[in-house]
Amino acid sequence: MANAWLRSLRKTELIELAEHIGLKNYDGLRKDLEATLDEYLTENSDRFAADPKLSPFYTQPARTRGLGSPIKREAPELKIAKRRQIKVPDEVVGSM
User: Fold this and answer.
1) What distance in Å separates the CA atoms of residue 45 and residue 64, rounded to the nearest whole number?
2) Are 14 and 30 in contact (CB under 8 A)?
3) Signed CA dihedral, 63, 66, 68, 71: sign only
4) pLDDT of residue 94
5) Does residue 29 carry a pLDDT above 80?
6) Residue 96 confidence (pLDDT)
7) Are 50 and 58 in contact (CB under 8 A)?
8) Which residues does the annotated region (Disordered) include (predicted)?
């Protein structure tokens, strides 16, 4: 999964960004371009970290850079509610 900042950009902005950093062969789908940019910028962080145009990419928290999703909790089991039993009062012995 690509960086949140990259996901927020339009395809034309992603293409401009790819041209800015000198990336070649960026034709294809938007998601492919996002993934390619994410991988390239992560691998070359020492070169591009000081670039003000790319600062939003490097200021995002590490977990949004596609390092994997967190472990999800298991869904709790649903408790089945039992119907309340009505207590029948003792029969009143009486004549009518």
Assistant:
1) 15
2) yes
3) positive
4) 54
5) yes
6) 52
7) no
8) 52-74
